[in-house]
Amino acid sequence: MSIDISQFLVTFYEESFEGLEIMESELLNLDVGAADNETINTIFRAAHSIKGGSGTFGLNAVSDFTHVMETLLDEMRDGRRQVTQEGVNILLSSVDVLREMLTALRDSAELNVQRVAATKQQLDTLLGGDAVSSEEKPQAEQAPVESSFQLWAIDFRPHLDMLRTGNDPVRMFRELSDLGELNATVDVSGLPAWDELEPEESYLNWKLALDSDKDEADIREVFEWVDDECDLNIHQAAGLFVEAQHEEAAPVQPLATPPIQDKTDTVAAVGTNAGSAKEPARKPTASGDTSIRVSIDKVDELINMVGELVITQSMLSQYGEAEKIDTAGIERLRDGLGQLERNTRELQESVMRIRMLPISFAFQRFPRLVHDLSSKLEKNIQLKMSGEQTELDKTVMEKIGDPLVHLVRNSLDHGIEKPDVRREKGKPEQGTVHLNAFHQGGNIVIEIIDDGAGLNKDKIIEKAVGRGLLVEGEAVSDEQVHDLIFHAGFSTADTVSDVSGRGVGMDVVRKNIRSLGGTVEVTSKVDIGSTFTIRLPLTLAILDGQLVKVGTETYIVPLISIIESLQVKMDKVNTVSGKGEVYRLRDEYIPVVRLYHVFDVEPDGRELTTGLLVVVEAEGEKVALFVDDLFGQQQVVIKSLETNFKKVGGVSGATILGDGTVALILDVKGLMGLYQKQTPARDLYLVKSSDAAA
Amino acid sequence: MATILAVDDSASMRQMVAFTLKSAGHQVTEACDGQDALKKAKGNKFSLVLSDVNMPIMDGIALIKELRAMGDYKFTPILMLTTESTGEKKQEGKAAGATGWIVKPFNPDQLLATIKKVLG
């Protein structure tokens, strides 16, 4: 029977990556010199599982690599080897390599073969260089076996307790008879007197004659499991030709196992350079395979909820079947509908919760990062984490990883001072970076708090003036100063360091967070420290929207991008040489986008005074959307247009409203892009500056 | 067709073993560590137990000892799923009462062949 086990690879990769996380965090917990045995054992177990699994799935490069790691860990566990910083560091980089190998295999991507080889070399050197060979028993030694039949005499004397290991002699006889023709003679002389007989013990001895073309090793293999529970004597019966090579045949069966064929093609991708680089960027091809682990509680809750829904449904249909509905019936129907609404809402909430994962998934990389960076930066930094169990949407989690890394790196590099500087300031030498997460309203808040030097206001202002972002002598609030660091190309680091400080970054961080519908801000006090606060929506699947009306259509504007809505005073509207209109709001000139024009629908009125302007902002720029009227605000479930239809400029998705009609969700940034195409932004700025000068 | 208890902390191994056994017509119950297995063994009488050795909470060796101490599992075949590098583990497992072992890595055919040996 041939069974395709590649279907379990997804699970294997998933648990292997989890295993690697465990190894990494436990390695970081390991106290060099006084290592805790349980910690080493946990690391060992993770490596062991990956080795076992990769072997089973035919990923031999991975299993060879883990084998060396495992050997090293085994020696550490048994106390045969000291746990040194060097050892821990090599193991940590092995974890990285292993992660790369598994990722490359999973995504059928390329692998840095040199790095794998170099790390394995390090491991081998540490082990004394002889680790690899132990397992690879030369298979060639197996002599070609003569196919002639010969008679084997087997003397089999089970020990009294053999049955207690579940080994029944009958099994062995059955196996032997598969090898050839078997004759068994029982020797009952060992049987005790009846009253002394223990039914759980084996008293019988056997003389077996086997006519077989197999050699001694094959016969011994049958008795492999009971090696210690019996006396076994196997020899060739007289009268047949004796072949020298059988005299001292190796009693041990080579245990090497052929790799599973289904996966050999993937294995090749690791072993070789996998051809030329077709796609330099590593793009996971298995995106359809993303899966999520859900705790059983959440699933139970869901099942429970569905159960209630079914009850409500049957109740309602019962009411509906009544021939005529009287007042009491209507009352019951209303109650039932109320219950249905409750059920639906709860069901929706539980389904959303399935996509939620604790933020510890995003936090878990930081102990390693802080460990590595603080030694690189020659700083003494401890990492504190709290609120790791705070949950957020899996997609948001995946996208917040990079910005978080950036902010933490930033705190380590620019925030926390070197120990001597801290001592001079009267602070403890050890700096602290604190990651904190909590829920607030419909948002998750993530804070990165350091007790470092804080933002240097004067330096920022000086720099901002140098870059033309501020006019010298202009009065600015602390918030405005702090906000400046999120501008493109803004870095106040004195020197560009290896870690961060290239001045690309904070603007990208803010852009990424905003694209998730979130915000980031910073508060800081000199020599006390800085706090970066990220606010993110809990999920990307639901959006708080403002419903707006244009003619017969309803559109949804994300609430987060709306600054204000206002009625138009015509004296504040300027027309820019036939290219568009701008609305003067306080000191700003905001381009007006007529939605009916963009979407080509017939509005209630074309005069600006007949409708409203909704001022929205995206990436620091504002536009005023002209609409007929505002409806209510509501949470809407986002349906992708791309999967159901195709991408449409200025629209980020669609949703179904309570009355069943479809409403488009506006993509504010995209709308600006559309608008700017027809009216070059340059012209608008010209107006702005000339107006300001006038 | 036999009722089999498959114990492994690795979900992919467990799935692979269970799938293989099921496709050969056996009834399989899965457990993710020794303690879980013990709980499932009580009140059931499996005709074969397959257990990984290295597991958190309760390892395979302890599980075998516990099972052998239960009346129902005194003579039940119990096979360890083990890797070559842990040769001394085999001895430890035998001493605890294991019937035999299947060496990891194994493929479905090897697994079924060994099972057949034990179950006949």
Comma- or semicolon-separated keywords:
heterodimer, A: 694 residues, alpha+beta, Four Helix Bundle (Hemerythrin (Met), subunit A), Alpha-Beta Plaits, six-stranded mixed β-sheet, 22 helices, B: 120 residues, alpha/beta, Rossmann fold, 5 helices
Q: For the CA atoms, what is the radius of gyration of chain A?
A: 36 Å
In order across it, which strands form the biggest sheet of chain B? 2-1-3-4-5
CATH class categorisation of the largest domain in chain A: Alpha Beta
Poorly predicted tracts of residues of chain B: none
Largest interface: A-B, 49 and 44 residues
Structural class, judged by helices and strands of chain B? alpha/beta
CATH structural fold name of the largest domain in chain A:
Heat Shock Protein 90
Number of strands of chain B: 5
Annotated CATH architecture of chain B: 3-Layer(aba) Sandwich
Strand content of chain A: 15-25%
CATH class of chain B: Alpha Beta
Q: At the fourth CATH level, what is the homologous superfamily of chain B? A: Response regulator
Order of helices and strands of chain B: EHEHEHEHEH
Query: Helix count of chain A, per DSSP?
Result: 22
Helical amount among residues of chain A, as a percent range?
40-55%
Low-confidence stretches of chain A: 130-146, 239-288, 494-504, 679-694
Instruction: Write down the CATH topology of chain B.
Output: Rossmann fold
**Could you give the order of strands across the largest sheet of chain A?**
14-18-19-17-16-15
Describe the largest sheet of chain A. Answer: 6 strands, mixed
- Please tell me the overall pLDDT of chain B: 89
What composes the largest sheet of chain B? 5 strands, parallel
